[in-house]
Amino acid sequence: MRTMLLAAAVLATMVSADVTGPWRVSEEVFQEFMREEGSEPLHSWEDFGTQRMKVIKRVAAWAADNLKDESSIYNVMTWIGRKAGIVTGTTVQEDLESLAASNTPAEFVTKAQAAAKKYSAIMKRGATFGKEPEDFVPINGAENPYPYFGFLPKLKGRAMGSGSATWENIGCKSNTATSTWNSDKTVITIELSADQCDPSHSGDVYLFITVDGFLFEKLSADKPKKTVHWLVPAEFKKSIHYDVETKGVRIMGFLHDEGQLMIDVLESVLLFLQPEAGSYPDFPSEEAMMRNIYFLTNYQRMQPFMKARVHKNITELNSDLIQSGDFIGVIRLDGLDPMLGWAMGSSTGHTTVAMRDPSGALWITESTTNSSYWPTNGVQRTPFDLWMKQALAAGYNAVWAPMDPVVRAKLNQTAMWEFFYENEGFQYGYQNLLWGWVDTEESNYPCTPVDGFTQCVTWELIEVLFSIVGGAWPLAGELIWDQSWNKRLNTTGLPPDDLYMYAETQLNMSARTIPTIVEQDSWVYNTSRNFKPAVGKSMVCCVFVCNMWKAGGLFDGKTVNCAEMTNVDDYDQAIFNKALMNGGRPEVCQTYDPENENCQMVGPFTLNLNSYNKAPLYDHQCEHCPSWQHGVGPDYWPAGKQDATC
């Protein structure tokens, strides 16, 4: 029932002409959400992987409860009635009023299910599946083929407390926000006005947001005027006042109406839901894999596209061929790997390095997390045969890239093993999950095909969103951005809002440059080792692989920060064996995957490494690089912005 009341509050803000806000989601509110419906709360002693799985499952349960039959949400029902044209607006209104009059959750669900039958025409717009990945069409795909992350908003203007901001949008062409402070600067009053509105459009949806709060609003032909009172109480800390006074209340507009936005969220969740929210061992469903391949094909646009392999299981490769230093690239079609590959410009989402111990036994070493598909946490080694069985069970698509024998001969394998043992058991490197990849102020953030690849993740969104999320879920903030950003500014324990103010007032630098500061291999973090608190290196998969090579002497004589490497930066280096590419591959690899230049070891779908074995080794490589540096990223990236270290 509490969730229903929250949904009612959301609707109230979108239909009321006078709104007082924002919503502020504290850690206490988030914990209350986590405890609802018999779910497990988060505990301070838990590692991030455990908390992440709890949050995924709780959000999945919430989504399932609130998206039953795609008709229990006001916006979707309205959208169905308008798009499908099967009922009149009056009928939709009556159904909504009946739902609103429900006294219990059970009554609400019963009415929603009855309404779903009436609105069954929506099924004609449902996702469709075929035998091949190219047969998949997302929900409402004929009208909008790009729902994934289609909910990313664009900055339209700022309410600064004086003056006006103007912008265009889809439903209303002319929009104005005029804002004024009260006398003691504790309230900004924002007068919203829309003109030149399309009466057939249900309205433009907006996100109003600062570093500590947010609310949603809507302007339409029916309701073209709104007033928002943004409260900034005097007792709030200085950094929150600084943020509002210097950067204003950000007004971010969405590119779709409410119905399509709900579908954008639903389709995006379905990329991750089944593969990530299950229990070990879990294999991605056919539907999830089809969605993920559709996403990669249309968003990443990296050719050759993934397609079904004739031989879907383990390639019968002679493991004696695999030697220390060899690279194994992986992508699992689970939402996370494809999203990371899209952002990095990489055809993989995970990387590992093979090692033989002094007895000759073959191991796969890596940095990863325990999850619904992998049993072991952190920096680890797994016997090769066992790793292959686990990879098959997890739904990995994995490819072998053998190191050039001349390069391998120079590696100090004893030093590589010493580095491994020094770091075995350390937690996966969440602290540099993002910031080794983000080198520039705007050219590393991924864009969607919506509106001609102009809808992108932006610093303006990250700046406020990470501050809010960190306040609600402290462990996520501490691991993924708080420590990393404090390292860059030589500070300790400051949350994002305080860091932004410190950077701009004390260091005379723009906050947006914080993520671009080079991650140093010498930095150590508060992390865990074998689930106990520890201080040590933070390494995501590709950083670990690079560090193993670095420990062996691969970069001797050069200054290289492995923490700046992404997946593609690892396998882009010209250190691999050309003689074992294409027609030089073992015969079984050519038989199983005749079009792959490398040898695919396992997986139901093809995996080709983009920009493979091309870049020479050099000082400070990959420290200031846009994500399109290899010429294999999406075709929307501009040219001519390449740094000397790329």
Task: Write up what this structure looks like.
By secondary structure, the protein is α+β, with helices and mostly antiparallel strands. It is built from 19 helices and 19 strands. The model is unreliable at 1-15, 68-74, 80-90, 119-124 and 629-642 (pLDDT under 50).
Structural class based on helices, strands and sheet pairing? alpha+beta
How are strands sequenced across the largest beta sheet?
A: 13-12-11-10-14-19
Mean pLDDT: 85
- Number of separate helices: 19
Assembly annotation: single chain
Compute the separation of the termini in Å: 54 Å
Write the layout of secondary structure elements.
Elements: H1 2-15, E1 18-21, H2 27-35, H3 48-66, H4 74-84, H5 89-100, H6 105-118, E2 154-159, E3 164-167, E4 172-181, E5 187-197, E6 204-209, E7 214-219, E8 225-231, H7 238-247, E9 249-253, H8 258-277, H9 286-300, E10 327-332, H10 336-344, E11 350-356, E12 362-368, E13 378-383, H11 384-394, E14 396-401, H12 405-410, H13 413-423, E15 447-448, E16 455-456, H14 459-472, H15 474-489, H16 496-506, E17 525-529, E18 532-536, H17 541-551, H18 567-572, H19 587-592, E19 599-602
Parallel strand pairs: 1-8
Antiparallel strand pairs: 2-9, 3-4, 4-5, 5-8, 6-7, 6-9, 10-11, 10-14, 11-12, 12-13, 14-19, 15-16, 17-18
